[in-house]
Amino acid sequence: MFDRWTFGISSVLVAFILVVLGGRLTQAAQMEGMDMGHYRLNMATNPAVVEANQSFSMILNIYQADGTTPVTEFDEVHTKLLHLILVSEDLTEFLHLHPEYEGDGTFVLDDTLLPKTANYVVFADFTPTGDEQQVIRTVLITDGAEAITPELAVSADSFTAGTLKVDLKIPATVNAGQDTLIGFHVTNAESGDPIDNLDKYLGAAGHLVILDNTSQVYIHTHPAEAEGSHDMHNMAGMETQYGTDVQFAATFPATGLYAMWLQVQYEGEVYTFPFVVDVTGEATPEATAEAHSGHG
Ligand SMILES: [Cu+2]
């Protein structure tokens, strides 16, 4: 039932929340619960046994609900047909990968490297043409890895990577079930000067992926674009630059600790910043109703 070639797939409900904040529209794909999905994902690896720091290929097949009819048409979303998020089970390692489409519902990613021995939770994020964005969760078993429960702790609110320093700007108390503005202030790590010329990365000023402690809640959100954010073709060739503040909107469904990874690109290089935040406030019924009114 659960071997190395046919990985188990958690059925997920993908809900779309359109959050209007300060007059700006931000789309978040959020996943929770155990509803049956409309699609199936089959993930295989070559070699079949995956080891940390050993190159392998991933082969992903996306099927209709019957599990045999391939999905053949995908929308390009943030410049890619398939976004693959791999997170080590303890939520310390984060990979954002883009397998190549080979047609007939098959995606292949060569030369994948896992930075440490751990099982990895995999989120396949794609949009079949004519349907809504889908997120399918599965687990990649790594040779020698043991099942692990994350031990999250609230992170520092500032991280440095390469030339960039990023400061998290978030309300002192974050309430579950309520639209929350999550901001990042980007400066030069050495000079402290504001960085206002971030590159566009995968069609956005930045990407923010949020997971709960059990990696059952998946939120992938982007800053609002002034215009044309849903038509990447219009943006081809545009030299848009971003910073020094990059802001996201998200709704945490419940209290607890959440891991989140900010990705931005600067001078051609992609940087990933890991944060952990604690959602301590309880949702008010009004805020919850508001947060869910954007479904559909
Ligand atoms: Cu993204």
CATH architecture name of the largest domain: Sandwich
Instruction: Return Rg in Å.
Output: 19 Å
- How many strands, which pairing sense, and closed or not: the largest β-sheet? 7 strands, mixed
Bound heterogens, unique? copper (II) ion
Question: What is the global morphology?
Answer: globular
- Strand order in the sheet with the most strands: 2-3-17-16-19-20-14
| CATH class designation of the largest domain | Mainly Beta
CATH topology of the largest domain: Immunoglobulin-like
Under CATH, the homologous superfamily of the largest domain reads Macroglobulin (MG2) domain
Low-pLDDT stretches are: 1-36, 226-237
Helical fraction: under 10%
Q: Tell how many strands the DSSP assignment holds.
A: 20
- One letter per element, helices H and strands E, the order comes to EEEEEEEEEEEEEEEEEHEEEH
Number of helices: 2
Helical/strand content category: mainly beta
Overall average pLDDT: 83
How many domain units?
2
